[in-house]
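Quick one, tokens below:
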């Protein structure tokens, strides 16, 4: 790709940088992987992130990065060896219990198994950030429409900048998406309430043993409790249940609980006690995950329509959850990262600036096909994991897990 052109001005030869002005909106797995791979190819790129700083909010739980998805993306970024040093292969272990606490499956990886090791989201973010130019506290409000000068991006701070390519990697509630598509996420009917435990090996050794080295899941009728080890003895617990979106406004009507009053989601003790009532009858050690949990975060699960596509718009594209939000069954971040890496490679290898749009168009076709397949798999998977028949979840585990 020709990066510069030489022109003569005032009897002097000047070199003009012909590289495209590229903006990434969102510094999650998709945006940072895109920027990091582009940076590796020597192309300048700026990431605009709404959060005021990297530590502005808890980074979230653990991610398993698959050999053929997230790890492939890290390889393209030149970061695979560093990932392998940080990640937890033993975290692939998976245990399934029934609601009485009986262990039904206890799968452990071989010592050399590196198919899906776990890494804390915060560690992954720091790994990807490296030398990148990230402008923190630059929330985007609107993108486009494009003009001959490029695509305008408007920021919450009132500023506006113009780019040749705007990559929307700004997650589920993307502000870039409306520039290419009118689709909006809809509720799946499943809500997650997340809590966490710290220092589990010393403070809750019984729970540490129950969870094992990786994840533990208990499936009941239209309910599930999943606990996942992060590094440093931190455990995230996800209480999942089928419920209307406004379940918390009337627990008697919506959840069949003997409580007429609405639930204040900001009141941790009230949420804990409602969850204990919702999971009433489950084995005491399993419920201890809720009894000892600290903060509770309400996360109703939303998705975009399966196989979401759009008519190509020059100068704007989407990656990751912004393009194909799907149920969280272990692939969203993986897809987001691989897409980021692939788009960056396509952009970097476009032979001339005029070929950029064709490169993006070809990338979109590839992304839509793969994401569409995964959206179908994860949508069907959620139906089986949080279902009226807990045997469905066990059957799904047996179909997917290597023996
Ligand atoms: C409970 C749970 C567990 C999950 N577990 C897994 C797992 O094990 N494996 C897996 O692969 N996936 C998992 N996922 C899915 C995964 O989290 C997402 O698919 C992934 O984070 C998507 O990455 P992204 O970069 O597209 O979006 P995000 O991670 O959402 O990042 C978007 C970024 O954009 C920023 N942003 C948002 N709006 C703006 C704006 N207007 N302007 C500027 N910046 C903005 C945000 O602050 C954020 O930093 C899980 C999801 C959930 C909810």
């Amino acid at each position: 790709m020709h990066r510069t052109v030489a022109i003569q001005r005032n009897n002097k030869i000047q070199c003009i940088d012909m590289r495209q002005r590229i903006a990434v909106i969102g510094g999650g797995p998709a945006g940072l992987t895109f920027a990091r791979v582009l940076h590796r190819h020597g192309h300048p790129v700026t990431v605009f992130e709404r959060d005021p700083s990297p530590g502005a909010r808890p980074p979230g739980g653990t991610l398993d990065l698959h050999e053929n998805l997230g790890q492939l993306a890290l390889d393209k970024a030149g970061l695979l060896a560093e990932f392998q040093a940080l990640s937890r292969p033993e975290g692939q272990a998976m245990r399934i219990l029934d609601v009485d606490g009986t262990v039904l499956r206890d799968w452990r990886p071989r010592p050399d198994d590196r198919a899906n090791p776990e890494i804390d989201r915060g560690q992954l973010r720091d790994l990807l950030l490296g030398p990148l130019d990230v402008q923190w506290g630059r929330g985007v409000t609107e993108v486009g429409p494009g003009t001959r000068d490029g695509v305008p991006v408007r920021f919450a701070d009132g500023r506006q900048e113009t780019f040749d390519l705007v990559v929307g990697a700004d997650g589920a509630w993307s502000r870039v998406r409306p520039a290419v598509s009118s689709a909006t996420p809809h509720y799946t009917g499943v809500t997650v309430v997340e809590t966490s435990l710290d220092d589990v090996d010393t403070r809750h050794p019984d729970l540490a043993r129950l969870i094992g080295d990786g994840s533990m899941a208990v499936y009941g009728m239209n309910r599930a409790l999943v606990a996942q080890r992060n590094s440093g003895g931190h455990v995230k617990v996800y209480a999942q249940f089928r419920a209307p979106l406004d379940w918390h406004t009337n627990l008697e009507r919506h959840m069949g609980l003997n409580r007429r009053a609405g639930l204040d989601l900001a009141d941790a003790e009230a949420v804990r006690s409602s969850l204990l009532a919702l999971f009433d009858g489950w084995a005491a050690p399993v419920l201890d995950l809720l009894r000892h949990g600290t903060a509770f975060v309400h996360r109703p699960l939303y998705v975009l329509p399966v196989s979401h596509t759009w008519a190509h718009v020059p100068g704007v594209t989407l990656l990751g959850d912004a393009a194909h939000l799907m149920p969280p069954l272990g692939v969203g971040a993986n897809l987001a990262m691989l897409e980021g890496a692939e788009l960056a490679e396509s952009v970097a290898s476009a032979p001339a600036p005029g070929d950029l749009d064709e490169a993006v168009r070809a990338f979109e076709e590839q992304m839509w096909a793969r994401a569409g397949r995964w959206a179908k798999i994860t949508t069907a998977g959620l139906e089986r994991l949080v279902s009226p028949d807990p045997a469905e979840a066990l059957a799904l585990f047996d179909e997917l897990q290597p023996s």
